[in-house]
Specification:
With 173 residues, this protein is of the alpha+beta class. The chain has 3 helices and 8 strands, in the order ααβββββββαβ. Helix content is 39%, strand content 34%.
Length: 173
């Protein structure tokens, strides 16, 4: 054996096949774990982004809704079409109408000079909105309900969400 090593002039100089296979296997296991973690992180990011967009749409709608109702003319606030439409007169514009649409809530503002401006507050497909009036307290409300939630936590996030706005005394008829 000594003569064989002396003939080559050195000791062990290479890795065995088993050592190479072991290293390749460890690298493959580590990379598959990293890919799995990245996929999980990407799905979590997508869910968070979707939840933020839903929340932002609802908050933006709520802000405009409260402002419009609070600035409404005391002579004209009306809910029609079984809660799917709200019409009010405002001091700085002739009329503001909110209506539920298939993909959200539409806001149509008609100024005194006849110019029209519309906005669509996009809500998730499964969320429905219904307008209402509490005539005793002078509150105009919008009830948002998520109808197709798959889990209890999703149902509780939307079911019963109420946006209220107080009208000036005598505004509700």
């Amino acid at each position: 054996m000594r003569a064989l090593n002396a003939a080559h002039g050195r000791g062990r100089a290479a890795y065995t096949l088993i050592e190479m296979v072991l290293v390749v296997g460890l690298i493959a296991a580590a990379s598959s774990a990293a890919v799995g973690l990245m996929r999980t992180a990407m799905r979590a990011h997508a869910r968070t982004e979707a939840a933020y967009e839903e929340h932002h749409a609802v908050e933006s709608f709520a802000e405009h809704f409260r402002r419009d109702v609070a600035g409404g003319d005391s002579s004209d606030i009306d809910v029609g079409n079984e809660g799917s439409r709200l019409v009010l007169a405002a001091e700085d514009t002739a009329r503001i109408a909110y209506a539920t649409e298939a993909d959200g809530i539409a806001r149509l503002e008609t100024s005194t000079d006849g110019a029209m401006r519309s906005e669509l507050y996009t809500l998730p497909i499964s969320v429905t909105a219904a307008f209402g009036i509490d005539r005793r307290n002078g509150l105009v409300t919008v009830h948002l309900v998520r109808s197709d939630a798959a889990t209890v936590s999703e149902r509780s996030r939307w079911t019963g969400t109420v946006i209220e706005a107080a009208a000036r005394r005598g505004a509700v008829r």
